[in-house]
Amino acid sequence: MIGIVSASTVQEFFAFASLGISHIVAREAADHILFLVALAAAYRPREWRSVLWVVTAFTVGHSISLALAVSGRVPVPPKAIELAIALTILVTAIENLVATNRQQVGAAGARSWSFRYRPALAAIFGLVHGAGFAEYLRALFVEQVAVPLAGFNVGIEIGQVLVLSCAAIVLVVLDRVIDALRARAAWWRLATHRSRVVLVSSIVALVAARWVAARATW
Questions:
Q1: How many domains does the chain have?
Q2: Which run of H or E residues covers position 126?
Q3: Is it the case that residue 3 has pLDDT exceeding 50?
């Protein structure tokens, strides 16, 4: 009996993990994907440790709010959450545009204030995104919450890694394109990395602003 229950539990875990992956990479999760792109846009490939800290903080945040919302301990007004998610994307994109100093400074390796607070910002925004995941997940629960919640969270994280990996490839290619354009344009003053941050963040900000305007009128 124990073996049967264990096998069923494992099967349930992987089923919800699969749901988590498919949910984060689906078209319906465009806002979550855009948020991850906005987070990644500010970093260079060599700054993967900083990206890891930010993504970990985001994970902690959305895991906490997802658990609370699914268990019914925190009410989740869907329309307000959708608006809040769009706002997190817009704020992140604007923060990318405003923060100009992302270089490592000082012999001790101190970083700019904007670089240090991003994990805290990601954790707070993770709380919002976790509440967004909850509305989708809550409808799938029957009785037990722990296994589906754990599986779904793992799936979400795998999906995020996939999204960030694809984003990293696109950003590296974009850097190469910008390098080539800068070599041909004498008037181009912005450094390659800063040009990429401005370009990607501006596009993200425009899309997010449109979502905010649309969702604020619900």
A1: 1
A2: helix 113-138
A3: no
